[in-house]
Structures are given as structure tokens and as C-alpha cells.
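Appendix B, example 12.
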Amino acid sequence: MTDIQLKVKDLNLYYGENHVLQDVSLEIFRKKVTALIGPSGCGKSSFLRCLNRMNDFIRGAGVKGLIELEGKNIYSKNTDVISLRRNVGMVFQKPNPFPMSIYDNVAYGPRLHGIRNKEKLDEIVEDSIKGAALWEEVKDKLSSSGLGLSGGQQQRLCIARAIATQPEIVLMDEPTSALDPLATAKIEELIRQLKEDFTVIIVTHNMQQAARISDYTAFFLLGELVECGLTTDIFTSPSDKRTEDYITGRFG
């Protein structure tokens, strides 16, 4: 039996009066890649932000329903949100390295969580940059600014930064949409490698990308989860006509 790591039940999200997500129920499996697809404005990124409570930063945002990580409700009053965000890392659409050295970008999270030992930090930085398939390109310039890297390298640096705190889950919000095809291919290869150690949930507009890299696919439309299942099933024999119409390009 596949191991369920994250369970979402009857999730509703509101931005003020706007009902953004309606009764979404979904299970996320450990060390698998789950792709969230659907047209713009359908709620994919909003759903992603619910999973590490990034919506807490949005004024007027309200959540109803249940999200359980390892059986614990992440919206409970007792949840340590800082610890949650360490455990559920995030990579954004546009590469956003901090204006500091490559080394300090990756060491930032571990330092924030109390790691001060230089040897330990060196080890974490090297392991994380290697884990993001960037080490060979930057090992001789760790003291240079992260902002001096190419777009694709910056995004891999952001992935290294996200995995440096050893999260269980890595969220990615269209991580290749600002990149050229070559850089995109590198990130896709990296995502395949990351699932050996992490659960990956990725929002993508690119259906070919979802088909290439994900084990499971969830199709969102107008704030609803239309269906979710094995990627091969969703792309070859979807159970809902709306999914088929979207995948075959009839709309979206």
C-alpha cells in the first residue's frame, strides 16, 4: 500500500468574500511527485499555499476544512508554523535568491533554525547544492552573489535553499515558467532525483511537463478539484469529460 503523507479533506479557502477553493479533498503520497494542473486562476497556487500556511500572510484569507501532515492538523491552534514551513519547503515561480553569497543563501535556513557550527554548515551547504545538481557549477564561487547566476542556476540555488532545512515536502509553484528549455530540462531531471528523498508537489501550466515528471496528477477547475489519480490514468483515460477536454486542448 502506498504511504499517504498529507491528507486534505473538504478544504475551502476564502479571500474575503471570494470563495477560491471549494471542498477540495486530496491525498498526497510520500516520495512521489504530484502535479497540479488546470487553467490560470483555477486555484492551484492557492491550494499549494494552504499546505505550508503561506495564505496566513494574505489579508482576509480564511480556511475551513482539514489538512493533516503525518496525521496532525496543520491548522490546529497548537501548530508551530515556523516548524511547519521548515518541514514543507517552497520554491517560487520566479527565482528569488537573497542578495547575498551563494553560500549564505543556502545556509540561511539552517542558521535561522539555530545551526551555528561552521563545519556543520559547510556540510549542509555542500550537500544541498549537490542535491540541487549545482555543485560543479558553483563550488569555486560560493562567496559570489547568488544574483550573479543565470536564471536556471538561480532556480536550482532556490531549490538548494529549500532542501537545506531537510523538509519532508517540497512545494514548487511553476518553477520552470521563467526558464528556457535547457534550464527547464535540468530542473525536471532534478525533480526526478529529489523524489528519492522528498515528496514533491508541483504546480505547472505545462501538461507535457506534468506527464513527464509526475507520478500523480490533480486537475483543478474554477476552484474545484475535478479529479486526481495516477498521471498515466489522468492523461490516457480521465474519468471526467472536463479533464479530457482540458488535456486535449479544447479549452484552457
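The chain has a mean pLDDT of 95. The radius of gyration is 18 Å.
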